[in-house]
Design goal:
The complex is a heterodimer of chains A (about 210) and B (about 625).
Chain A: H1 2-24, H2 28-54, H3 59-63, H4 82-87, H5 90-103, H6 105-116, H7 123-150, H8 173-205
Helix pairs in contact in A: 2-7, 2-8, 5-7, 5-8, 6-7, 6-8
Chain B: H1 2-24, E1 33-38, E2 45-50, E3 59-67, E4 73-75, E5 86-89, E6 99-108, E7 111-114, E8 118-121, E9 132-141, E10 144-152, E11 166-174, E12 181-186, E13 190-193, E14 201-210, E15 222-225, H2 230-257, H3 259-266, H4 280-285, H5 288-295, E16 314-319, E17 326-328, H6 332-339, H7 358-371, H8 428-449, H9 462-471, H10 479-491, H11 502-508, E18 518-523, E19 529-533, E20 555-559, E21 565-568, E22 575-576, H12 613-620
Antiparallel strand pairs in B: 1-2, 2-5, 3-4, 3-6, 6-7, 6-8, 9-10, 10-13, 11-12, 11-14, 14-15, 16-17, 16-18, 18-19, 20-21, 21-22
The chains are: A mainly alpha (about 210), B alpha+beta (about 625).
Pfam family, one (chain A): Hormone_1
Main location (chain A): secreted
Subcellular location (chain A): Secreted
Chain lengths: ~210, ~625
């Protein structure tokens, strides 16, 4: 009696284990595809935001806008052309993407806070879009965390890119707008980098599906 | 002559100066402007500029750029690859995610001009080349053709490695159309187009766009001709057309066959009035008088020879006591009228059956009393009052003639004073009474006759009209006078020959107390009431005649204040209903209007307060009831 019960129990356990394994293993290509879609959406949002802001941006602001090299993420070494990018390993690419995404967690909060009182005609729309950015960024970060677990130890490392700007982005109206615009331009570039890296990864993972790439 | 010289000189000078001016005007170059920079595959890029004015001297342009993190200024490496006024940056010189600060300088002998600097990032200026190798083929799906369009990405764009992600769009149109049909194909490189016109020639073009970039130009047009599948399509349509035409024809034919029924169904004929002898036209045009007279038919009542079945049944109860004689009549048309109260004219009603019983009469009497009020335009109510005429032995029959407004159903039957009327060979007394009755009848009927607008009227003969007319008295205030007048009016009728004075005496004779019902057979043209004895007994009639054999009715109890003749059965305390009030209304011309006596409170037969018979006997002893003595009587 006990022996039969034991064999039955082990069989049941095995079956459950197989099922769990089968159910939980979503192919990486699908995960990457989902992540690519998220990063694509993120970049599109940032592009729209930039256009909204530029529509009423004072022309004088362009001249004195800080250079993009002064973005807080510029210290991160990323590939500058196609050859370099294609040579980066998948885990490194993912690590870069995750680091960049992580670096924008705090600045987005600052942007959201300042968007409340931004002296801009489209302030309401801008604020809403910032909120959306935060949500998408968070969900993408979660997805990338899941991905990193499947891509080896290299993917786990995240470079720290602290943001030093605090929550105040300007004292007067002009500086507020300029800093807001500058931050957004940095974010736009970084979101494009993330999107590019993930799409490279997607194509690499979908070797069986040439039509994907 | 002088003028000519001056003109020539001026012209020469002008020419000289213009030639001189163009040649001598040199200036530094105008400011050039960078029009656009584009990268087809995110690996190289090209910038184009538009030069300003050259200032009349050969001007050269140079492009200088600076990358974002360094201050080094570089000059454009390639001015020719991309054509004139362009600068091509090859792979080596192209860095992505790096801002380029580009400036164009125009230089000529006199100076230089700088364009406005432009900051670009290569990844934001991607505009790929159009897709290549676009192929369109016609394929078939279950007999229906469709177009399959396939293409390849531009050869320079590296989509395999995922460096560039392209999405495609194609457009299709028929050769003769002006509008394109757009289709977004996403990332796939193949597309199917359905719903084609057979035999049509189609044009197909494809273009692409990077995920975050600009649309490419349209590819070169591909032409394709769809083969004809004309027959299959058309044969079905032919079949459908023929079938529906056939069905339509059948429907039309059916409608045509049944058009009469349809017409009756949709537009039912309007029923017209169905009054026998009624002239619709007169109603529309004529006045009320004319209409009333029109209702009177000349040959009414029908003669015995012709209308045996339509005889008016009249009950005449004639009692000829010693003192009084009360004749109650109920014209047939009364019955008719009350019968007709609810329904339309019944021409074929013999009348006899409906009015054939005393019970009926009683009921009608009750009804009549109720509806008495409602009638305002009945035939005139002849109110005759029995009057006491000590001198004149004329007996009056007092009774309420129910208005000929038969709609009211007011048939009042009287507990008439029954006279032992034999058949038509009465004693002089009987004759008199019968004549009285006849007179009464004629009175009543004439009164009916003169009512306008009553259906019952039409049965009345023209002869009665005369009575009516003659009987018409302007404002007869006292019934007494009315009766007297009426009687006088009727005196011309056979009554005068009768020894009326003998009537009272004869009437009083107790030997004549036996009661008998007589039935008025009809009224002949000479205004004589022809009577017939009635054999049938009567049922129970409440209030009205209840006439068991042997009882004497038609004892006038009195006349109440409303000039209602109250009758009583002799020996009984309760009276019967009198019920017919008649008033002449001069307003109606020839016709008399019925006065509805307020008898609604006593729907049943009139109930009179009991009066001591003996007291009444004295005044009634002559058979006349004096209205002055009627104070104690109630109206029905």
């Amino acid at each position: 009696m006990a022996h039969s019960r034991g064999t039955n129990g082990s069989k049941l356990f095995t079956i459950v284990l197989y099922m769990v394994a089968a159910c939980s293993s979503i192919p990486i290509s699908d995960l990457l595809d989902r992540a690519s879609q998220g990063s694509d959406k993120l970049h599109s949002l940032s592009t729209t935001l930039t256009q909204d802001l530029d529509s009423h941006f004072p022309s004088t602001g362009r001249v004195i806008m800080p250079r993009p090299s002064m973005c807080h993420t510029s210290s991160l070494q990323t590939p500058n052309d196609k050859e370099q990018a294609l040579q980066v390993s998948e885990s490194d690419l993912l690590s870069l993407a995750r680091s960049l995404l992580q670096a924008w967690e705090d600045p987005l909060v600052a942007l959201s806070t300042s968007a409340n009182t931004l002296p801009h005609p489209a302030q309401g729309a801008i604020f809403n879009k910032i909120q959306e950015l935060q949500e998408h960024s968070k969900s993408l970060g979660d997805g990338l965390n899941v991905l990193s677990g499947k891509m080896g130890p290299g993917a786990q490392t995240i470079s720290s890119l602290p943001y030093m700007g605090g929550n105040e982005i300007g004292q007067d109206r002009i500086s507020q707008l300029i800093n807001f615009n500058f931050l957004l331009s940095c974010f736009r570039r970084d979101s494009h980098k993330i999107d590019s890296f993930l799409k490279i990864l997607r194509c690499r993972a979908a070797k069986m599906l040439p039509e994907m790439c | 002559m002088m003028r000519k010289v001056i003109a020539v000189i001026l012209l020469v000078l002008l020419l000289f100066f213009t030639a001189h001016s163009t040649g001598n005007l040199h200036s530094p170059p105008g400011k050039p402007a960078l029009t656009s920079c584009r990268s087809p595959e995110k690996e190289t890029f090209t910038c184009w500029w538009k030069p300003g004015s050259d200032g009349g001297m050969p001007t050269s342009h140079a492009l200088y750029y600076r990358k974002e993190s360094s201050e080094t200024v570089y000059e454009c490496p390639d001015y020719h690859t991309a054509g004139e006024n362009s600068c091509f940056f090859n792979k080596k010189d192209t860095s992505i995610w790096v801002n380029y600060n580009i400036t164009v300088v125009a230089t000529n002998a006199l100076g230089r001009a700088f364009s406005d600097p432009v900051e670009i990032d290569v990844v934001y200026i991607v505009k790929p080349n159009p897709p290549e190798k676009v192929t369109v083929t016609v394929m078939e799906d279950k007999g229906w053709p469709f177009l399959r369009v396939s293409w390849e990405p531009p050869h320079k764009a590296d989509t395999r490695s995922g460096w560039i992600t392209l999405i495609y769009e194609l457009r299709v149109k028929l050769e003769e159309d002006n509008d394109w049909e757009m289709h977004l194909a996403g990332q796939q490189k193949m597309f199917n187009i359905f719903s084609l016109r057979s035999g049509g020639k189609y044009l197909v073009e494809v273009r692409c766009k990077p995920d975050h970039g600009f649309w490419s130009e349209w590819s070169s047009t591909s032409y394709i001709k769809v083969p004809d599948y004309f027959h299959r399509e058309k044969s079905a349509w032919i079949l459908i057309t023929v079938f529906s035409a056939f069905t339509f024809l059948i429907l039309v034919w059916l409608l045509h066959m049944n058009r009469h029924n349809l017409k009756h169904c949709i537009l039912p004929p309007v029923p017209g009035p169905k009054i026998k002898g009624f002239d619709k036209q007169l109603l529309k045009n004529g006045k009320s008088n004319e209409i009333c007279s029109a209702l009177v038919m000349p040959d009414f009542p029908p003669t015995a020879s012709s209308n045996d079945d339509d005889l008016l049944v009249e009950y005449l109860e004639v009692y000829i006591p010693g003192e009084q004689e009360l004749v109650l009549e109920e014209s047939k048309d009364l019955h008719h009228g009350c019968l007709k109260s609810e329904s339309s004219t019944s021409d074929s009603d013999s009348g006899r059956g409906s009015c054939d019983s005393h019970t009926l009469l009683t009921d009608k009497c009750g009804e009549a009393k109720e509806e008495r009020r409602q009638t305002d335009q009945g035939c005139s109510q002849i109110r005759t009052e029995a009057q006491r005429r000590p001198k004149d032995a004329l007996t009056y029959a007092h009774g309420d003639v129910v208005s000929s407004n038969m709609s009211s159903g007011r048939v009042k039957t009287w507990p008439s004073v029954f006279s032992p009327l034999p058949r038509y060979s009465p004693s002089p007394l009987d004759q008199q009474s019968s004549l009285q009755m006849a007179k009464q009848h004629s009175l009543s009927t004439s009164s009916y006759l003169t009512q306008p607008g009553h259906s019952a009227k039409e049965a009345l003969g023209q002869s009665y009209r005369d009575f009516c007319l003659s009987g018409k008295q302007p404002h007869l205030l006292t019934p007494q006078t009315l009766v007297s007048r009426k009687l006088q009016a009727h005196s011309d009728v056979n009554i005068s020959s009768i020894g009326l004075k003998r009537a009272p005496a004869g009437l009083r004779s107790p030997a004549l107390r036996t009661t008998e019902y007589v039935e008025v057979q009809r009224v002949n043209n000479e205004d004589m009431v022809l009577l017939q004895p009635v054999v049938s007994g009567c049922g129970r009639m409440e209030g009205c005649f209840q006439v068991p054999q042997g009882e004497v009715y038609s004892k006038v109890k009195g006349v109440d204040s409303d000039n209602v003749l109250l009758l009583q059965r002799e020996g009984m305390e309760e009276d019967r209903c009198p019920c017919v009030d008649q008033e002449t209304n001069e307003g109606t011309g020839n016709c008399h209007t019925l006065n509805t006596v307020s008898n609604t409170r006593k729907p049943s037969a009139c109930i009179y307060t009991a009066m001591p018979v003996e007291d009444e006997m004295a005044p009634i002893v002559n058979g006349y009831v004096d209205s002055a003595n009627m104070c104690t009587l109630h109206t029905c």
